[in-house]
Design brief:
binds (2R,3S,4R,5S)-2-(hydroxymethyl)piperidine-3,4,5-triol
């Protein structure tokens, strides 16, 4: 054993002994050459195998500190599957005869593409370890970073690839990590699919030989697949029970997560940059850092997996000044009311009405700048349209402020219309292939943020907007995907760096704006939920889940969204009825009960409201403010999930300290005289006494108690009578002293 390993062994002994007292989470057992991370209810272990490859050993429920974790040396299965292909490698270079999904694939100028990564050294920290691997012959180094969260047991993994040689290396595939599950034949993969106006559908299929590939080739996250997965076990895992392995990639560009079952029967999940059309040249001394691929394990079903993800995002991903992010303000947004027809008088009128119902943030959407009267012109010119706002934004902003609200503004900084001053001045600033046609999407092009001049220009424009106006919120939109992904100004060998550098510069602009304007909050919107991932969430305060604001469709969209991401980060608007998407007419109360399950927004044309509508809205906004901390930061329990043919949904939000719970029951329609089962709650303190009240004053069914223990509400449950179409009910349970 090398002296280095012996030294590391001493460190392991120290951390293992002190585990209970100091909550040390990472260790190395030098005798078995096993690394071990413990956090929450999870243990994760991997080892240096006999050949020097890094091999996955265990990922599952937490083991005792003294448990001996190890795995046998993997052997060749046959001449077709050499040992390297059978070893469940933590981070496999493509070489040495592997056919599984590699983590890293490179090419040297002399034609060599064989890469075999062996362990060199490691450095332990309290909650993680970084491991250096190197090719068996060539000077290419990979540093793997592992960190485990002591609260949730969620692991963050990423890799840095460094060219230590004297020639260029082309990276053709760079993934953040491979996660390996125990051998089994009964796994089911859950994933999220969608398209514009119809995001966040949870799908499932068996994990089998033959990969399932979740990906975006669009340049941004996209809504076709979200970079999230969960794997349950048939017959064992349900919403409330059984093991689930889950994860999400923190990247807002083209990504790929492939899920496969290897020849030895282990599911392997590999995620990172999408290798499709990927190439990243590393000159001598250069490095490439992958995004972080987070993953966790739950023993109490899909519900627990979601709650762990929610907690992790709130505590560790999204911007926050304290332990948790600030509560989302109730906002009003003008888009569905006015579309592009915004002007000073019209917006002031809407602001007055919004203030009446308790709105805290007034957001003016598209149409306020340049020659923006429709979606054919103006993008790129971020100066106020003088005919709509002859005195600039100041009078509107001060009106909004005087009404007790803060002011927010829509921008779409990454885009340009051909009919704009910016495009006329800089036609070379967009993503394009020289001399090829430029495809428009929504009459606009994508600016090439990988260019430093474009990046700096955007920062300057946005900084000026925020410096010169009392703006507290930006809705940052992004309404098309890439075409002709070229970067003619760059060396041809570097043009595909666009996929990485664009996103890194987007993150840089967001980070710099936040640094310069710490009181401004930002929403990530991409024509709906097209750019929602843990990467953008680290730099924005909330996201827009979908342009589809029909409250029935929303129940399903929200169910899908919250599989992966916290309800408090998802904005949900109450809009006009009939809804523009599908002409479905629904009662205002139903629309509120649907939208109150996220960050509440109002997007109706308030000029059309009756006094009764204002009274209804005032009541629900008031209730929402009482329960929003529970909804936004609490624990979500899905009691009935909506299905495509019947969007009946029952969801319960329980405060972190269990002092309050908010129950929402909505049905698209009741059928025949089907008796309804009582709704049995979850997650309450069984010994505490909770009083129940209806959110809108509707009395409970006959004989229902006004106060009972948590055990009663969870055991006996609540009878709710819903009859007819688009009916909903909401209840608040408050713990009694
Ligand atoms: C797409 C967004 O999702 C909408 O809410 C709205 O902001 C429009 N863009 C404006 O063009």
């Amino acid at each position: 054993m090398s002296r280095k390993l012996k030294r590391a062994g001493l460190i392991f002994a120290a951390t293992a002994l002190s585990h209970a007292a100091a909550h040390a989470e990472a260790g190395f057992d030098a005798s078995r050459r096993v690394f071990r991370l413990d956090g929450g209810d999870v243990t994760y272990a991997f080892k240096i195998d006999g050949a020097g490859l890094l091999q996955s050993v265990y990922w599952g429920s937490r083991l005792a500190a003294a448990d001996p974790i190890d795995a046998p040396q993997a052997r060749a299965l046959s001449g077709f599957d050499v040992a390297a292909n059978v070893v469940p490698q933590e981070y496999a270079g493509w070489g040495g005869g592997i056919f599984t999904e590699p983590a890293l694939k490179v090419a040297w100028p002399d034609g060599n593409r064989d890469l075999v990564l062996h362990y060199v050294s490691h450095r332990l920290s309290r909650d993680g370890v970084s491991i250096t691997l190197r090719d068996i012959q060539r000077p290419l180094t990979v540093t793997l970073n592992y960190v485990i969260d002591r609260g949730t047991g969620i692991i963050g993994r990423s890799a840095t690839i460094a060219n230590d040689g004297r020639t260029d290396v082309r990276v053709d595939q760079a993934m953040a990590a491979t996660y390996v599950l125990p051998v089994g034949s009964d796994y089911r993969l859950h994933f999220l699919t969608g398209r514009w106006g119809s995001e966040w559908t949870r799908q499932e299929r068996p994990v089998s030989a033959g990969a399932t590939v979740l990906e975006s080739r669009r340049g941004s996250t996209g809504s076709e697949n979200n970079p999230w997965f969960a794997i349950s076990q048939d017959g064992r895992s349900t919403e409330t029970d059984g093991p689930v392995w889950f994860g999400a990639l923190a990247w807002s560009g083209s990504f790929r997560i492939s899920v496969d079952r290897d020849v030895a029967g282990r599911p392997r999940v590999t995620g990172g940059f999408n290798p499709f059309d990927f190439a990243y040249r590393l000159k001598p001394g250069e490095r490439l850092e992958t995004p972080i691929f987070y993953a966790g394990h739950a023993e109490a079903g899909m519900g627990e997996a979601s709650r762990l993800m929610h907690r992790f995002a709130l505590e560790h991903i999204v911007p926050r000044k304290g332990e948790l992010p600030a509560l989302r303000k109730v906002l009003y947004n003008s888009w569905e009311a006015t579309e592009f027809a915004v002007d000073e008088a019209g917006q002031m009128r809407l602001a007055e009405r919004a203030a009446r119902i308790g709105v805290e943030r007034f957001v003016m959407d598209d149409g306020w700048f340049g020659a923006r009267n429709n979606d054919h012109a103006g993008l790129g010119d971020w100066t106020v349209n003088p005919s709509k706002f002859p005195n600039g934004l100041a009078p509107l902003i001060s009106k909004v402020r005087s009404l007790g609200m803060d002011f927010g503004l829509w921008v779409e900084p990454e885009m340009v219309n051909a009919d704009s001053n910016l495009y006329r001045a800089h036609p070379d600033w967009i993503i394009n292939f020289a001399g090829r046609p430029r495809t428009e999407g929504r009459n606009q092009y994508v600016l090439n943020l990988a260019r430093i001049d474009v990046r700096d220009h955007l920062l300057k424009q946005l900084d000026a907007l925020l410096t010169n106006n009392d703006i507290r919120f930006l809705k940052w939109d992004y309404n098309r995907n890439w075409s002709e992904p070229g970067w003619p100004a760059a060396d041809p060998a570097d043009q595909q760096k666009l996929y990485v550098d664009y996103v890194r510069n987007l993150y840089w602009i967001l980070a710099e704006l936040r640094r310069r304007h710490p009181d401004v909050e930002i929403e990530s919107c991409s024509g709906g939920g097209g750019r929602v991932d843990l990467g953008i969430m680290a730099l924005t305060d909330q996201v827009w889940a979908s342009d589809n604001t029909d409250p029935v469709d929303r129940l399903q969209i929200q169910d899908g969204f919250t599989q992966a991401y916290a309800p408090g980060l998802m904005m949900a608007w109450v809009t006009d009825s009939p809804n523009w998407v599908n002409k479905r007419a629904t009662p205002l109360s139903f629309r509120f009960l649907s939208s109150m399950q996220g960050g509440l927004g109002i997007g109706t044309n308030l000029n059309k409201w009756t006094e009764e509508d204002f009274a209804t809205a005032q009541r629900y906004v008031g209730v929402y403010k009482r329960i929003r901390e529970t909804v936004q930061h609490g624990n979500l329990y899905r009691i009935t999930r909506p299905s495509p043919d019947n969007a009946t949904s029952t969801t319960l939000y329980v405060a972190r300290d269990k002092a309050q719970a908010a129950l929402f029951a909505l049905t698209q329609g009741t059928h025949q005289l089907e008796p309804r089962a009582p709704i049995r709650l979850l997650g309450l303190d069984p010994n505490a006494r909770y009083a129940i009240e209806s959110m809108d004053g509707t009395p409970l069914g006959d004989g229902a108690p006004a106060v009972a223990t948590g055990a009663y509400w969870m055991g006996r449950g609540i009878d709710i009578r819903l009859q007819g179409d688009f009916q909903g009910a909401g209840y608040i349970l408050s713990r009694q002293r």
